[in-house]
Fold each of these.
Amino acid sequence: MHGELDFSVAGRVGAVAGTTGTSAEFLWRQYESGFDVEFWGPLGQGRTHLVANGDTLALRTSRGERVIDADARDWIRRELRLEIPIRALSSWITGRPSPAWPVSGLDADTFTQLGWNVEVGAWDDWDGRRQPRKLTVTRGDYRVTIVCRQWTFGAR
């Protein structure tokens, strides 16, 4: 469906908006044409699968519902409390700004893009590649923290 794997990363994500928070385990698989990511709670409960392929964003919920594009974005905001620009995360999770949008304040560990502040709190070396161990993405009182536990790279 997507072609050859660029990278995959497994870890934990937590989101806080004001006084409300949520967290989940995740597995992100990045391909040239898009990505697929799975989120789940304790003991694998509530597994949600998000797939971006080209311009299409599709979501399969833990209850088997399938929602597409704008409805998928609304579901992510409502159920996962993630209001972050999902497509930009493909780059942000690697500690780099997306080439699709303007960036400011770029230095070794931080940048601002699409109104979001992205800060890599810790880097680590996986297979000779420097990748984030922890990053925090903030805008106003909204904060998403991503802890990367394992990176795997494709053949490229």
Note: Helices lie at 70-80, 86-92.
Amino acid sequence: MSHVTPSEIFKEVSAALPAECRENIVIIGSLAAGYHFFGDDQSKTVRTKDIDCVIEPYSVAVQAGETIATQLLKAGWQRRLLGDHQTPGASETPLHKLPAIRLYPPDADPNTEEAWFIKFLTVPSDPKNEGKDWTRLTLDQGDFGLPSFRFLSLTAYDPIPVSHLGIRYARPELMALSNILSHAKIGPELMSAEIHDRTIKRSNKDLGRVLAMAILSNQDDYRPWATLWEAALRSAFPDDWQSLALGAGSGIRELLHSPSDLNEALHTCNYGLLQSSQTTEGALEAAAQRLEVDAIATLEKSAQSPL
């Protein structure tokens, strides 16, 4: 994992992207959260290896993805060649076997733990799609895939512009909503790499990030989160927003009732977004309770009301 300064990586990513495609990029994940909360504070870093960039809207994903990837490769960016399915495909290669586009900056040493890379994703082509979906991109090297996950569309709702860089990043509240909907239950899947010498469930890592963003937001009242959540759900999932809203709190509630899972979430927070100002298990539990009462319960109440 790299310790990166969000403002510096934002500048580097913006400078590398084709000017005509910057408006189609939304940066998400821990880098986006770090930039939002830490700004230009050079003393605060984010622990991450992948810089997640969502290409949106879906209608331009193929053209923009091919343009961006081609320009970066010509500028000396290097493909990340770890994991399965790294050989570019052909027209007959099944979508799920295509390699994703993951690129190291030109000056990076991909053999070191400190190397970070850009990863490209896109929003779903259809709000009814569930799970992981792929869109084919064709480059000079062969065919690649743009992955998408059902709730990525929420992170692309009303993103925050960084006017002097020409790019945008996802709102923390909507990254939180995407994560809690993605983990309606705490699943058994483990992170592929340890986090500071501990093996952590993916659900606990992602739900922990939700709580870290809640703590960093330091709101007196989180009910405005519910207002934004409802607007984003209505936009992205007009037919299903109520059922999604009614199930949004299950993962957080499960976390609150499992001391071992809450402890894992605490560990990921203190070696992630909260590494500069570590918190306690009691404070994390309190943040989860406030989020449940203010935001989740408010969203559920709205979803239960007649249209």
Note: Residues 281-304 form the longest helix (24 residues).
Amino acid sequence: MDQTLGTSPIHAAAPGDRAVSARPAVVVWLFVNAAMVAAMIVIGGITRLTESGLSMVEWRPLIGWVPPLGDAEWTRVFELYKLTPQFQQVNGWMDLDAFKTIFFWEYVHRVWGRLIGVVFALPLAVFLITGRIERARLPRLLLLLALGGLQGAIGWWMVTSGLADQAMVSPYRLATHLSMAFLIFGLLIWTALEIRAADHPTFGTADRAVRIGAGHLLALIALTIVAGAFVAGNDAGLDYNTFPLMDGRFVPDGYWDLGFAGLAENIATVQFNHRWIAVTTALLTLGFAIWARGRVPDHMKLPITLLGAAVILQAGIGIATLLAVVPVWLGALHQGGAVVLFGLAVWTRFAVRSPR
């Protein structure tokens, strides 16, 4: 016999109903993860700028949550660091107190990465068990989970490149690690916006030219970020600290000294490429923002406007960072600016997408 209250039968919500009603919670969860990945990218930048990334020579994914406790453990990890090329070639002056400083940033970097994994995986499991994930969303969410695990492995693969013969990590591996971080960040934002849009329909469309332009800008901003990764991987920001010329020339001497390998390994080449890809990106993004605002409905104008403002600010920060010879705070601010700019580009491309 059905129990009733008035004339409405009381019944448990169907799994599909639970998944629909859980959309706001899922959106918040995804945005929280995106914010944590954004912070992770900045922490990673600080780790790189302080040359802390090679201070932890062990990969201990299960017990690595706990920092060294006591003098004996600190001495043990410091002795391991003394065997690395970075200590032997660069930091031979370093005592235990100085080592603790660089160890701190790499420790925070790794623990924050593991914390992201927990904050993503545990709620995902709860959402799945309680039927609060729509079936159509599951492949994307499982892909994000897999990419997060892969990113941890890529991070250790990157670190090992600096523990063998050279006192720096491979710029190729660093660029791979940073690119994966931005890919995960972008997918988190897109997925959250997609789920949110299901409950907040909008009206009016952008024309095809705006959609194509927004897509090309997103790709160009991504290319600029990858070019910046090769600057970081070669410490190229510490040279040619003038703008717009490099040693009094537009194209620096030695640009093609290493041939195609120089695109990733030659200091003059990678810095020239990054600075002028960035300038091109800034000009095209600003032009797009001015042009597109007059061709889209009102609800699409906010991300486009913010994108135009952010690219001007980011270009200014980038030039200031170069001229100041990359102080840690400015370098970290520049990396954070790249995260904001990329996030706004993803939002813009999503906002002008084709209607379904």
Note: Residues 96-129 form the longest helix (34 residues).
